[in-house]
Amino acid sequence: MEIVLENAALHLEKYKLMMIPNHIHLITREVSNHFALGVSAGGAAIGYVLVRTRANISRANIIELKIEQKFAGNGLEKILLHTVENKLREKNYHTLTFDCVFHEGETAMKEFLQPGEGWSDGELLSHIWIADLQGISRAEWIKKKRIPKGFELFSWDELSVSERQDIEAGCDQWYPEKLSPLQEEQQMNASLSVGLRYGGNVIGWMIVQRAARNMVLFKTQFIRDEFRKLGRGILLIAEAIRRTSKIEGMAYGMFVMDKDNADMVRLANKHFAPYVTRRKMFYSFQKKLV
Q1: What's the CA gap between 4 and 264, in Å, rounded?
Q2: H or E element: which one contains 54?
Q3: Is 285 within 8 Å of 113 (Cβ atoms)?
Q4: E strand or H helix at 184, and its extent?
Q5: β-strand 252-258 against 215-223: which pairing, if any?
Q6: pLDDT tops 70 at residue 78
């Protein structure tokens, strides 16, 4: 089998059927910090790897590594990874990370991410729960709509220019970058995502994406420390669930909880557990390129 490695963006007709729309968007933007390396055989696409680059910190992250099932496990994953690593080294990148999802109870290991190849042991980043959205929406705590005085829930598509500027300036100041509501904006559903104001200032958000025809992803939840202690974060979660559960055919909700967010994990165990259908874990692997 003759294997050809190529820039997937330059051969998009070949690769677009195996890529999700957002991946196509990321590699075809006029200015992009993403690239995709494709692998084909006999003129047909059989896999690709999508990489996000962050030149300011000499770091890159693999977003997706996909090989058609009948070709998987035959070494193509390593070939793609080694090619990506060499490309990044040429541009003086120092670190490559690869984030993977595993089912709960599954060993967090990939045959192409081995210590012998320079990869670290996987680090648990977050828990992922998939739950019966309609079931949760009927819970008593969801039905309550009382908003304490001074607080205001709003749809994220109502965010003002000045509020957006304040959020941009606050990154790594009053919230960590990994919880930024401005990351991957093209993937969010702004009308389903919810913000919370207090005294006219944005103090939190719940960013929502459509993960599938019948599933929404509750991806990024944040509320400022002084309000988290008052339990105000539940206002965001309840409102997001109310909005998404009203969509016809929307059966499931996927909740992502940072392993260090003890408050969110505790809330999930208390309120979500009875409705959970699947549990997964999100791990990150790292490799030094220097």
Answers
A1: 46
A2: strand 44-54
A3: yes
A4: none
A5: parallel
A6: yes
Cβ contacts of residue 219 below 8 Å, gap of 6+?
188, 207, 208, 209, 256
CB 289 within 8 A of CB 88: yes
Contact between 52 and 34 under an 8 Å Cβ cutoff? The reply is yes
Q: What is the pLDDT of residues 171-224, one digit of tens each?
A: 999 999 889 999 878 789 999 999 999 999 999 999 999 988 999 999 899 999
Q: Are 121 and 287 in contact (CB under 8 A)?
A: no
**CA 64, CA 76: separation in Å to the nearest integer?**
14
pLDDT in tens, 250-280: 999 999 888 887 878 888 888 889 999 999 9
CA–CA separation, 174 and 184 (whole Å): 20
Residue 257: both structure tokens together: 């909880």
Query: DSSP E strands: which ranges in 75-200?
Result: 95-103, 123-132, 151-155, 194-198
Q: What is the largest CA-CA distance in the chain?
A: 68
Closest CA to 130 of 279, 269, 248: 279
Q: How far apart are CA 192 and CA 146, in angstroms?
A: 19
Q: Say what the pTM is.
A: 0.79
